[in-house]
Every structure is written in C-alpha cells, then in structure tokens.
Amino acid sequence: MESTYSTNLATQTGTSKPTRDVKVIPLHHPSSTKDSSTTSEAFAKWKAKVNRMEWNEWIEMFLPCYRWIRTYKLREYLQPDLMAGITVGIMLVPQLLKQIDMSTLTEFILLFCDDVPS
C-alpha cells in the first residue's frame, strides 16, 4: 500500500540537485460502526489489568499525589514551598478580596482569574 514518489526538481529548475523520494502513507479512518467484539476485548483487558493491580497502584489511581509524595525531599523542598505559599497568601488573597468588593463576580470565578498580582 505504500507508494513512493520523487519529484525531479533538477530538470524543472535547471539545477543539478539530486532528487528526493517522498513516502506517502495512506490515512486509515476508523470504521463508523461500533464493533461489540472490540468493546468486549477492551473491557476484558481493563478487567485483567484491574485484577492484577497491587495495593499501592490502587492508591495511586485514587490519590494521584501518592506517587510524588513518596519522592518528596522534605529538607530540600519544604522551605521553597512554604515561601511560595506565604507569598501567594500575602499578595493574591488581599487582592482577590478587594476585587470581590469592586466587582459583581463571585469569589469562585475571581479566584481562578487572579493569576498574576497587579
């Protein structure tokens, strides 16, 4: 099904550059009809995966932070994380409260709109 085409630019433009082969890969569209066998196969694969999961994989599935919390270096990361949290609390929370007073938007919307202190 693969086809290769080459365009001879050297003869078209009058230069002596070598030609380059172009590989054409046909695009395959998924069928529009749902096949129940592929759905049942996918469900069977998922069920087999769930059956062989260990307890820590279950925790990772329901609590995604479990993976990075195991590798968190307390002595190295705690001080910069606390400084960042305090900075956000000092700068953004009062600005957010002032914007709530001045606008008709709800606190929830303004909390996500207030990314950068102005």
TrEMBL record:
GO terms for cellular component: membrane. Residues 1-17 have a biased composition (Polar residues). Residues 1-22 are annotated as: Disordered. One of its GO terms (biological process) is transmembrane transport. This is Transporter. Transmembrane segments: none annotated.
